[in-house]
């Protein structure tokens, strides 16, 4: 028996899809970001470049008229701040600017320019009352300061002025007015050639204050060899007159002179060789001290009651002819006279300047004599380095106290 095979169900063909990878990434947003960055960079470069165009260079305007200067500054897109000031330049001319030419400024910033007020003629105010003179000067743009002087003109009248009337000066300049105090001036007497005591009496007799300085000279000791102010000059009552008094040391002594506003001082240059003590007994105290001082010896004064005239040297130690080193002490016993005043303690003025020391001694009731002594210490120059009698001594009022003022010397 034959079996017949029936065909099986028709085979179906399956399509098996090949595996597909993930979809490609999209990079478009990166390109967009890069483009955005390029735009920002371009804008930044443009801003930086355009920012420089907002600056201007400050022009030089010194020496220009104010209007011309302002125009040039405005042309640079800058502002102007004008101020008026004193200058030798003509009026309305710029004499300073801030900031200076060449400075870089942003548009709208300010340049300050100083404009000259120029020079003006000083009014002549002599012979006017001081109040009226000051008003006239103020109205003309000047300041004033008053200095009283003795004059035969009525009190309060301007006798002199400086600068004088008619000269040109910068606005705001101070004009000094010498105004009469109503007191009559004093004529300085001629005292050159007189003894120290005679010269002092002549000056104090007319109300002047003598200032004594010792100088080497061929003239006899105690003779006035120079004076300042000169004889015949009119000065205020109470003014100082400087007298150079000879020490009698002769021309072999080297002196170094220094002139100040109120005095002429002299310093004696000495060697280190020993010196012989001179005889000073029976001399007046002042010439005796000068002789010792000029030789480099250091006097030590002790007052003693005596029938001898006041200030007469009664004794000395060491004896005349003794050989001493410079800087050694020589003691002098000096007469205080038969009828001395009540005793007063000598104040300590060592270390003070000459003027202060003299003032303190006079206030204590003593006469003051000044002698200069060489010093190599700059710190002692112009200061009292010794006083005789020494500080603390009890001596009659009205007697002489000598101060030794240091004067800087090369040796």
Average per-residue pLDDT, rounded, comes to 82
How much helix is in the residues? 10-25%
Give the termini distance in whole angstroms: 168 Å
Instruction: Tally the beta strands.
Output: 27
Radius of gyration: 47 Å
Provide a count of the helices: 6
Sheet of most strands: 3 strands, mixed
Q: How many domains comprise the coordinates?
A: 3
Strand order of the largest sheet: 2-5-3
Describe the structure.
It is built from six helices and 27 strands. With 411 residues, it is α+β, with helices and mostly antiparallel strands. It has three domains: 78-117, no CATH class; 119-180, Trypsin Inhibitor V, Chain A (2-Layer Sandwich); 186-408, no CATH class. The protein has a three-stranded mixed beta sheet with strand order 2-5-3, with helices on one face. Strands 7-10-8 form a three-stranded mixed beta sheet, with helices on one face. The protein starts with 27 loop residues before the first helix and ends with a strand.
Features:
single chain, 411 residues, alpha+beta, Trypsin Inhibitor V, Chain A, 3 domains, three-stranded mixed sheet, 6 helices, 33% strand
Present the secondary structure layout.
Blueprint: H1 28-52, E1 55-57, H2 66-75, E2 79-85, E3 94-98, E4 104-106, E5 110-116, E6 119-121, H3 130-139, E7 143-149, E8 158-162, E9 168-170, E10 174-180, E11 186-187, H4 196-205, E12 209-215, E13 224-228, E14 234-235, E15 240-246, E16 254-259, E17 264-269, E18 275-276, H5 285-294, E19 298-304, E20 313-317, E21 323-324, E22 329-335, E23 343-345, H6 354-363, E24 367-375, E25 384-388, E26 394-396, E27 400-408
Parallel strand pairs: 2-5, 7-10, 12-15, 19-22, 24-27
Antiparallel strand pairs: 1-4, 3-5, 6-9, 8-10, 11-14, 13-15, 16-17, 18-21, 20-22, 23-26, 25-27
């Amino acid at each position: 028996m034959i079996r017949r095979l029936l065909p099986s169900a028709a085979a179906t063909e399956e399509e098996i899809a090949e595996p597909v990878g993930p979809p490609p990434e999209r990079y478009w947003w990166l390109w967009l970001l890069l483009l955005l960055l390029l735009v920002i960079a371009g804008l930044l470069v443009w801003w930086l470049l355009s920012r420089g165009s907002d600056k201007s260079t400050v022009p030089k305007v010194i020496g220009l008229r104010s209007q011309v200067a302002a125009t040039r500054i405005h042309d640079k897109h800058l502002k102007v701040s004008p101020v008026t000031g004193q200058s030798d330049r003509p009026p309305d001319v710029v004499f300073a600017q801030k900031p200076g030419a060449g400075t870089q400024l942003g548009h709208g910033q300010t340049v300050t320019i100083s404009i000259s007020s120029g020079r003006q003629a000083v009014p002549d105010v002599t012979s006017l009352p001081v109040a009226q003179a000051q008003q006239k000067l103020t109205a003309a743009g000047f300041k004033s300061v008053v200095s009283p002087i003795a004059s035969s003109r009525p009190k309060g009248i301007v006798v002199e002025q400086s600068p004088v009337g008619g000269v040109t000066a910068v606005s705001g300049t101070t004009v000094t007015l010498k105004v009469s105090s109503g007191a009559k001036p004093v004529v300085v007497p001629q005292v050159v050639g007189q003894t120290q005591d005679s010269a002092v009496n002549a000056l104090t007799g007319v109300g002047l204050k003598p200032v004594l300085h010792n100088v080497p000279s061929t003239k006899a000791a105690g003779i006035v060899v120079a004076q300042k102010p000169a004889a015949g000059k009119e000065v205020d009552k109470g003014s100082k007159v400087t007298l150079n008094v000879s020490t009698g040391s002769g021309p072999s002594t080297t002196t170094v002179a220094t002139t100040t506003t109120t005095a002429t001082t002299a310093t004696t240059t000495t060697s280190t060789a020993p010196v012989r003590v001179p005889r000073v007994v029976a001399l007046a105290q002042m010439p005796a001290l000068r002789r010792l001082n000029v030789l480099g010896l250091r006097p030590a004064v002790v007052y003693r009651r005596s029938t001898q005239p006041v200030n007469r040297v009664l004794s000395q130690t060491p004896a005349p002819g003794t050989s001493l080193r410079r800087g050694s002490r020589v003691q002098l016993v000096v007469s205080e006279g038969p009828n001395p005043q009540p005793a007063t303690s000598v104040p300590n003025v060592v270390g003070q300047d000459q003027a202060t020391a003299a003032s303190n001694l006079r206030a204590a009731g003593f006469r003051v004599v000044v002698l200069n002594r060489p010093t190599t210490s700059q710190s002692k120059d112009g200061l009292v380095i010794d006083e005789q009698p020494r500080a603390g001594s009890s001596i009659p009022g009205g007697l002489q106290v000598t101060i030794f003022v240091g004067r800087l010397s090369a040796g």
